[in-house]
């Protein structure tokens, strides 16, 4: 199920195919020229969507791989103005959603943050720790700016809260595949994820994507039949930092192949 879009330009489409592979890339991990080459390599290897992460010093929902990458980017001097360059380059190759913690948005200024990311080519912004009290105002800001507002929906979300989350979301709903920080490498409760996705589909017509804990192509293949998009972060970031661009691109290609040929019975694999 494609996510809504208003034009045929890459930056305006969140999902160009029915089950898309999204790749997370922390902005500023390497020097600008190296980063541009990385973006090109990952795009050419099968990335259907880029999730560009805004580096944060205390990313409480992230595990050691992404936390370390964020710290390295910050130590390099990466700031929001640098993230805009990353978004612009990535948006020239695939749709882009900016992944960010609210503190960074608040410090920069919500309206300014949305406008600048839109100008850079982003299609949406997902605040992973968006305060419930600010969700409506933030959604209105993004709507006025022409951006989507995907929402992270933990499986324990109460029914009344779920309705509020869905009302403030656009673009997609994000169903975590694991109840752990990013980088989790254990087994996945596919039956539980299936129940969570079905619940979201009853509550909203928005597409559902999943990430967190999809650590191997085999797991991506198992998750793909349940959702409209599969998001992969820590495995790719880990490959980039430990083995380099070519290794990361090869791993993206493996994930892309897995997502394009999903398991027939994911809940029992």
Walkthrough of the structure:
It is globular, with a radius of gyration of 17 Å. β5 (151-152), α7 (159-167) and β6 (173-176) form a beta-alpha-beta unit. It has an 8-stranded parallel beta sheet with strand order 4-3-2-1-8-7-6-5. The protein has 11 helices and 8 strands. The protein has 269 residues and is α/β, with parallel strands linked by helices. Residues 1-18 have low confidence and may be disordered.
CATH class: Alpha Beta
In CATH terms, the superfamily is Aldolase class I
Low-confidence stretches: 1-18
What is the distance, rounded to the nearest whole angstrom, between the alpha carbons of the first and last residues? 23 Å
Radius of gyration: 17 Å
Which fold name corresponds to the CATH topology? TIM Barrel
**Helix count from the secondary structure assignment:** 11
Spatial ordering of strands, largest sheet? 4-3-2-1-8-7-6-5
Tell the overall outline. Answer: globular
Q: Strand share of the residues?
A: 5-15%
Tell me about the biggest sheet?
8 strands, parallel
How much helicity do the residues have?
Answer: 40-55%
Return the domain count: 1
Label the structural class.
alpha/beta
Helix-strand string: EHEHHEHHEHEHEHEHEHH
Identify the CATH architecture.
Alpha-Beta Barrel
Supply database-style keywords.
disordered N terminus; globular; alpha/beta; 45% helix; 269 residues; 8-stranded parallel beta sheet; TIM Barrel
Summarize, please.
This protein has 269 residues and is α/β, with parallel strands linked by helices. It has eleven helices and eight strands.
């Amino acid at each position: 199920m494609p996510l809504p879009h208003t034009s045929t330009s890459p930056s305006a489409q969140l999902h160009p195919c029915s089950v898309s592979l999204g790749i997370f890339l922390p902005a500023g991990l390497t020097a600008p020229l190296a980063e541009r080459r990385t973006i090109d390599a990952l795009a050419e290897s099968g990335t259907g969507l880029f999730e560009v992460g805004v580096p944060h010093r205390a990313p409480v929902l992230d595990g050691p791989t992404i936390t370390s990458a964020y710290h390295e980017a910050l130590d390099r001097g990466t700031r929001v103005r640098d993230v805009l360059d990353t978004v612009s380059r990535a948006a020239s190759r695939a749709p882009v959603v900016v992944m960010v913690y609210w503190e960074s948005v608040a410090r920069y200024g919500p309206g300014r943050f949305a406008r600048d990311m839109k100008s850079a080519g982003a299609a949406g912004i997902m605040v992973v720790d968006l305060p419930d009290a600010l969700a409506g105002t933030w959604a209105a800001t993004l709507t006025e700016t022409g951006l989507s507002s995907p929402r992270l929906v933990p499986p324990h979300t109460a029914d009344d809260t779920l309705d509020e989350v869905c009302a403030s979301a656009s673009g997609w709903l994000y169903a975590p595949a694991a109840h752990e920080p990013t980088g989790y490498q254990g087994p996945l409760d596919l039956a539980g994820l299936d129940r969570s996705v079905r619940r979201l589909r009853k509550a909203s017509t928005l597409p559902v994507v999943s990430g967190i804990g999809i650590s191997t192509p085999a797991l991506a293949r198992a998750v793909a039949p349940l959702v409209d998009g599969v998001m992969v972060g820590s495995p790719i970031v880990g490959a980039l930092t430990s083995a380099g661009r070519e290794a990361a691109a090869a791993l993206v290609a493996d994930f892309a192949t897995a997502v394009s040929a999903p398991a027939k019975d994911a809940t029992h694999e």
